[in-house]
Amino acid sequence: MIVIKRATDTLIVFAVMLLVWQALHQFVGDTALPGPVPTLQYLVRFLPTARFAENAWATLVSFFYALILSYAVGLSIGIWMGVHRLSGAVGEPILISLYTLPKITLYPVVLLIFGLSTSGRVAFGAMHGVLPVALLTMNAIRNIPLVYLKSARTLRLSKGQTILTVLLPATIPEVISGFRIGFALTLLGVLLAEMFAAKHGLGFLIINAMQLLQAEEMVTVALVLFVFAIAANALLLVIEHRLHRRV
Amino acid sequence: MSRVGWIRLAVIGTAIGLLEISCRLGLIDHRVVIPPSEMVDALLQLLISGQVNDQIARTFGIVTAAVLISVVLGFALGVVIHALPRLRETLDPFFATYYAVPIFIFYPVMIAIFGLSAIPILLMGVATALVAMIIATLNGLDRIPRILTKVARMHQMGRLSTTLRLKLPAAAPHLFTGVKLVVSYSFIAVIASEFILAPAGLGRIISDAYSDFDNRRMYALMLLLIVVATLVNMTLHTLDQRWAARRGLVKS
Lengths: 247, 252
Prior knowledge:
The structure holds two protein chains of two kinds. Chain A is mainly α. Chain A folds into two domains: 1-33; 42-246, Orthogonal Bundle (MetI-like fold). Helices cover 85% and strands 0% of the residues of chain A. Chain A has helices at 2-28, 36-46, 50-83, 85-99, 107-114, 118-142, 146-154, 159-196, 202-211, 215-246. In chain A, helix 3 (50-83) packs across helix 8 (159-196), helix 5 crosses helix 6 and helix 9 (202-211) packs antiparallel against helix 10. Chain B contains ten helices and no strands. In chain B, helix 3 (53-83) runs parallel beside helix 6 (118-142), helix 5 (107-114) crosses helix 6 and helix 6 runs antiparallel to helix 8. At the A-B interface, helix 1, helix 4, helix 5, helix 8 and helix 9 of A face helix 1, helix 4, helix 5, helix 8 and helix 9 of B.
């Protein structure tokens, strides 16, 4: 029952969004914002083209590397700051203030270091994703109930066993939350980088379409990214809920 | 200051010192990063010359407007949604996914609709911050202890005074968390929009300075933004901690 209700709620939200879109389209006209129907028609024509494939691939590649980097660096920092209390106490406010900084201001520095290249976009995407992963991992480790560690000792578990059977399962749900937020922010970072300065990628396509007054293509690419982000988030949410229930 | 605070200061100081030394020794190319001391010098000269005052006023004006709109509207919407449980259940999936969508992909759409002006930038600021305020308001209203309503009834308080004297203070810490998020989200959104495409503003002139290879100006403006953002966030954080301490939630 709950599943059906949730699905209905989601459908209602989508329906309302489509209605708002249509209404906005009626209000501002074709040249500024094409309606849902022409956009879907354009989408069907646009998706099989090589142009879309090339740019989507460029974005995916940057995003993939940036995500790996976010998770690896974020986990390392988080584990270090979670295990070593002093580092955590010293570093946490620094990480939080970096989190609230408009990191886009630093993108020119990234460009000066890496040039206008995939590595620059990867680095910039990772800059966005590292912080939530690190902060949530650190909290996950800090919040492990002491009694878990005591029971591990009572059961005379070895260090390896403790990590595998106690520490990992206890921290994983929150780490996955970090991964979910990191996913969204890394995607944002990569797209911002492409929108600011790039010759490939979906972010570039949107800006390019806007400058060429191709409203249909602009809205279509935005729609593709929107659906991708929502689908990925839903998938990660399902995994997260399942893990939380198990613990 | 606590020991941890001193260590933190030392860590930041060392990082800046290392950057300064590496730049001065030529380990880091002057065309890539200029020494921090030079950034400070450039910023001071820029501020004294008053060349960028209009841009500063413009950007912070838009941020302020976005913050005010988001806080007021977000609070109002939060109150309404809280009063209608069915609406709230329906909106739940919307709130859960809102921040997963890279909302900047809609900035060009906003420009196409409203033209290249301050309006799309303001709208991006509000779009990014508003939902955080709604969620914070819902959280705050959820956590008003039931006992307070009973106390109000015992003392035969009117609706207005119950709201003003009991409910609002009880929800205040959550509302303040919302305000904190609104400030940093609006700031990020406005700067990022100006960066991507804007007729004027701090983000725009940083990106212009980058295109002109004017590193002194670029780093001066970056430093300005970083300093302002950090100061504002630290002030809000300190206020938050102080209020929490007064409520006995954490030790100050």
